[in-house]
Structures are given as structure tokens and as C-alpha cells.
Automatic annotation (TrEMBL):
It comes from the Bacteria. Keywords: Lyase, Metal-binding. Pfam families: HMGL-like. Residues 10-283 form the Pyruvate carboxyltransferase domain. GO terms for molecular function: lyase activity. This is Hydroxymethylglutaryl-CoA lyase. It comes from Nocardioides dubius. The keyword Metal-binding applies. The keyword Metal-binding applies. InterPro entries: Aldolase_TIM, HMGL, PYR_CT. Gene3D superfamilies: Aldolase class I (3.20.20.70). The lineage of its organism: Bacteria, Bacillati, Actinomycetota, Actinomycetes, Propionibacteriales.
């Protein structure tokens, strides 16, 4: 293995407590969600998408958002991220004490209307309001362009469409701009093309990527994103989650598997601990959360196969 000292560090955003649990059928108690976050912090992960402030009748898995944040208040090392879809959600996130918020704009009208009841243009307008109010409240505000690689209703999503959406999103001044392969159809060539286009639009905004592994391309896409200049990657402990609109969805890319891939590739991962993020601890948590969800096993593989070679652990 050859380490590249000048390679930029990659930051991992843990999304299992939100995107992972939100898309699993089981409804877990608040205490289990809090334990999941605390285990992630103990393993060395700092930015964690803790919950979503959505309508409880539509997303019952996130109905206890405020309670989860209340239990986690004061957790040393944790930067809590809340997903919000509108100004009401933002108000709830601010009241609950979130450190950051992430909003969503869907690149395709088909999924935008199906998922949130309004088209893409309306979501861009809502994001602008959310961004302004979040800044006024002193919160970092990021935005994810969902379905950037394909839509379950509209089919192919051209890169030109993604970039048009990005122009509208960037006008809102996001602290971080993310692209999401919501249904797991993307391939590395798309990643390279989209990221290059985003860099032409704005060469300063921090770029983040969110990949699902429905067709086993998520990890290849993650490597392509890093090569293209993305410095923040979402991942879900255990690989839990997925998308309810993606038939046969197998989940998000797994945090532990991604950590193994990056470590063996000599890619630095951001950490405030000398020993870095503990991939073995994350893998153990992946096995544990799968048990809590009643899954036969976690989609992640590191917890099953174990580490190899002369790595740190």
C-alpha cells in the first residue's frame, strides 16, 4: 500500500440514526436510538445525522426527534445534524438544539411530488427560506440534491438537470452541497461528471456525497467522488436503510466497510483522535443495530468477514 500524505482528509457523516432507521420497518425505542448515536461517538465519529423533523404520521420512525435530541444534549464530541424539509421542521430543529440542519431538494419532479407533495422548484424556494432562517438562528445549513443519479418515477436524471437544480440551490448559500444517489443506480462516470459540473458552478463550496448500494456500486462511487474532489461522505453503520421507492434496496454504503476501504487505500480520514475512527467498534455496532431491528444480519460485511492484514487494528 502507498500512502499519499498530501491527500485531503475525508470526513465521514454517520447517517444510520436518520436515513438508516427511517427506512427500516421496525420502530425502535428512543433509548435504542440514543445508544446508537452514543456508540458512534465513542467509536470516534463526530458529525452524526441524528434524526429528521418530519410529520410523525408520515415518518413514524422519527416521531421522537425532540426526545432523542434532549437525551443527547451535552454529549461530548457530538455534532448533531437534523434533516428538515420546511420552515416548521427547522423551527423544531432549532428548539430541539440541533447543531446543524440539512435540507433536501429532489432533482426530479416525480420523486419530489411523491415524497414531499411539491415539485423541485418549490423545494428550491423552500430551501432558500430554510437557509436564511437557519443562518439567523446560528446554525450551519447544508442541502442535499436527492435523486441526482436517477429517479424511480421519471427514470434517467440528466446531469444538465442536476446542475440546473444546483444553480438554484447554490443561490441559497449552502455551507455544504451534497449529491445523493437515493435509489442506488449511479455509477462512477456519473459521479465524475456531476462533481466536475458542480465545481464549474462553484469551486469553493464544500461537496458531500451520499450513496446507496442497491446495485453494489456505492463504494466505487465513493472512491470516484473522492478522486473528483468530494471531501465529505455519508455512510450508515451496518449498511442499514435504503429507500422505500427503490425495489430491492439493500441499504446505504456501510460506515465500517467504507472505513476499511479508505484505510487500506491509504486515504486519510478526519478524526480528532490519534487512533482515528475505530472501524471494529463501528462493525460491532452494525451487528448490534441489526439485532435491534430484527434483521437476519446487517448488510455490512466487515462485521462478518473481519479485518485483514497489517492495519491499525
Amino acid at each position: 500500500m502507498t500512502t499519499t500524505p498530501t491527500a485531503p482528509e475525508i470526513e465521514i457523516v454517520e447517517v444510520a440514526p436518520r436515513d438508516g432507521l427511517q427506512n427500516e420497518k421496525a420502530l425502535l425505542p428512543t433509548a435504542t436510538k440514543v445508544e446508537l448515536v452514543r456508540r458512534s461517538v465513542a467509536a470516534g465519529i463526530r458529525r452524526i445525522e441524528v434524526t429528521a423533523f418530519a410529520r410523525p404520521d408520515r415518518v413514524p420512525q422519527m416521531a421522537d426527534a425532540a426526545e432523542v435530541l434532549a437525551e443527547l444534549r451535552g454529549t461530548e464530541g457530538l455534532t448533531s445534524i437534523g434533516l428538515v424539509l420546511n420552515r416548521k421542521g427547522l423551527e423544531r430543529a432549532v428548539a430541539a438544539g440541533c447543531d446543524e440542519i440539512t435540507s433536501v431538494v429532489v432533482a426530479s419532479d416525480g420523486l419530489a411530488v411523491k415524497n414531499q407533495g411539491v415539485d423541485t422548484a418549490a423545494q428550491i424556494a423552500a430551501w432558500h427560506e430554510i437557509a436564511d432562517d437557519a443562518r439567523a438562528a446560528g446554525l450551519k445549513a447544508s442541502v442535499i440534491i436527492a435523486a441526482a443519479f436517477g429517479c424511480p418515477f421519471d427514470g434517467e436524471v440528466p446531469t444538465a438537470r442536476v446542475l440546473d437544480v444546483a444553480r438554484g440551490v447554490l443561490d441559497g448559500g449552502p455551507d455544504e452541497l451534497a449529491i445523493a444517489d437515493t435509489i442506488g443506480v449511479g455509477v462512477p462516470a456519473q459521479v465524475t461528471e456531476i462533481v466536475a459540473g458542480l465545481r464549474e458552478l462553484d469551486d469553493t463550496v464544500a461537496l458531500r456525497a451520499h450513496f446507496h448500494n442497491t446495485r453494489n456500486t456505492g463504494y466505487a462511487n465513493a472512491i470516484a467522488a473522492i478522486a473528483a474532489g468530494v471531501t465529505v461522505l455519508d455512510a450508515s453503520t451496518g449498511g442499514i436503510g435504503g429507500c422505500p421507492f427503490a425495489p430491492g434496496a439493500t441499504g446505504n454504503i456501510a460506515t465500517e466497510d467504507l472505513l476499511y476501504l479508505l484505510e487500506r487505500s491509504g486515504q486519510p480520514v478526519r478524526s480528532d483522535r490519534r487512533e482515528g475512527i475505530d472501524a471494529d467498534a463501528v462493525a460491532a455496532t452494525g451487528i448490534w443495530i441489526a439485532e435491534q431491528l430484527g434483521l437476519p444480519q446487517a448488510p455490512a460485511l466487515l462485521g462478518r468477514a473481519g479485518r485483514f492484514g497489517g492495519g491499525r487494528r
